[in-house]
Write a structure and sequence with these properties.
Bound molecules: cytidine-5'-triphosphate
Number of helices: 14
Distance between the termini: 20 Å
Number of strands: 19
Radius of gyration: 25 Å
Largest sheet: 8 strands, mixed
CATH topology of the largest domain: Rossmann fold
Strand order of the largest sheet: 12-11-8-13-16-17-18-19
CATH architecture of the largest domain: 3-Layer(aba) Sandwich
Length: 409
């Protein structure tokens, strides 16, 4: 979301319906209040069987209203919904989704849902069978068709020994999706492809040549683009951070896998950001069995061959069939006797022929794996140079999208 929207204090209604995942919603409440928002929790009567009013009141700093008959003189069933900037319902049970889809108003939360004119985000959590049941799926489709956001549940451990789709996504993820709904939608309708992580080139079944890219910057780019309205495909090579909701994920391992996935996804892409660290060389051959140490103590010689330069290949394809596509490269540079980090970046932008190059200095404790970064964004035509001083990878992602949008105008 834009920095202005991020810093604004919002009136948020946190609806809680009666599922075991209600206990996790205390973390959502905490994240929202720590960000400075005023949160009114509205649990259904069933939700209070899982987490009591004292928890919600203490964490929100607001008295709890859960019944239409509470505080009647203040007409809460209308006031709360009308005053909200955002409504989040977590967990949204199958029953709550059904009542919301049918327009029922049989408790305070469903009254709030009917009177709210702001964005509404549902985070369902239930057993897999209930989630996949056609009745629930029809309710979800109905709510989405009316403009509500329904986050797909995560796949994982459920109550008891069961596991499968139906788990409440992590609190950070729900808050990120919900706040993103309020962002400026300046990438709406765009099809965007982002690569993240670091490729692996195998010597044998267990050993590989790789790098220490965490994938954090690529994931931050995907979240920022999603929040700004884009349809995002994130091609991940061995990414160690958790995957964002609302983004299509494709997992790859090697540079060749990455090449195939990127070429396929790029056919319809309006913009492609190559944030992944892709190996420049791979072993000429991969042993099918684990390599053994030599008996005579000699060191093995490993012959390497060049991998395909995916960025250069994209530029070639773009030039013939997608002239408006914006292609963004990253340049991980250290600077050396041949030139500074910036000089190497400027030369790389010309060499690669992409539209925009994000230069970052790499080295011990710099860029790879950290939460912050400092970059220079170069554009080729018209030539420009923007330095984004040390900030979060989220802010860097937004600065990159600002630069992409400026090029598209
Ligand atoms: N890249 C790519 N295919 C490769 C290698 C890199 O598409 N086989 C992309 C990266 O995703 C990045 C950009 O090219 O967007 C620059 O990567 P970098 O490693 O900085 O540069 P190299 O092209 O490898 O050049 P050099 O190693 O000579 O600096």
């Amino acid at each position: 979301m834009t920095s202005a929207a991020r810093s604004k204090s919002l009136n948020i209604v946190l609806g809680v319906s009666g599922g075991i995942a209600a206990y996790k919603v205390a973390s959502i409440l905490r994240l929202l209040t720590e960000a400075g928002h005023n949160v009114q929790v509205v649990p259904t009567p069933a939700a209070l069987n899982f987490v009591g009013s004292a928890t919600w009141e203490a964490l929100s700093g607001n008295p709890l209203i859960s019944e239409v008959w509470d505080d009647v003189a203040d007409v809460p069933h209308v006031r709360i919904g009308k005053a909200a900037d955002l409504v989040i319902v977590a967990p949204a049970t199958a029953d709550l989704l059904s009542r919301a889809a049918s327009g029922a108003a049989n408790d305070l939360l469903t009254n709030v849902l009917l009177t709210a004119t702001c964005p509404i985000v549902f985070a369902p959590a239930m057993h897999t069978e209930m989630w996949l049941n056609p009745a629930t799926q029809v309710n979800v489709a109905t709510l989405r068709s009316r403009g509500s956001i329904v986050i797909d549940p995560a796949d994982g451990r459920l109550t008891g020994s069961d596991s499968g789709p139906g788990r409440l996504p992590e609190a950070e993820e729900i808050v990120s999706v919900a706040m993103g709904v309020l962002s400026e939608q300046d990438l709406l309708g765009q099809d965007i492809v982002i690569t993240a992580g670091g490729t692996r080139e195998f010597l044998d079944p267990v050993r590989f040549l790789g790098n220490s890219s965490s994938g954090k910057q690529g994931v931050a780019l995907a979240v920022a683009a999603r929040d700004r309205g884009a349809k995002v495909t994130l091609i991940c090579a061995n990414v160690s951070v958790s995957m964002p909701a609302g983004v299509q994920i494709e997992n790859v391992i090697t540079g060749d896998d990455m090449h195939a996935a990127v070429l396929k996804a790029s056919m319809t892409a309006d913009a492609i950001v190559m944030a992944a660290a892709i190996a420049d060389y791979k072993p000429k051959s991969t042993q099918s069995a684990k390599m053994k140490k030599s008996e005579d103590g000699s060191s093995p010689r490993i012959e390497l061959v060049r991998t395909t330069d995916i960025l250069a290949d994209l530029v070639t394809h773009r030039n013939t069939s997608h002239p408006d596509q914006v292609i963004v490269g990253f340049a991980a540079e250290t600077g050396d006797t041949q030139g500074s980090v910036l000089e190497h970046g400027v030369a790389k932008l010309q060499r690669k022929g992409c539209d925009l190059l994000v230069i970052n200095e790499v080295g011990p404790n710099l860029a790879f794996g950290t939460d912050d970064n400092e970059v220079t964004i170069l554009t080729r035509e018209p030539a420009s140079q923007t330095t984004v001083s040390k900030t979060s990878k989220t802010q860097i992602a937004h600065a990159i999208w600002d630069a992409v949008i400026a090029l598209q105008q």
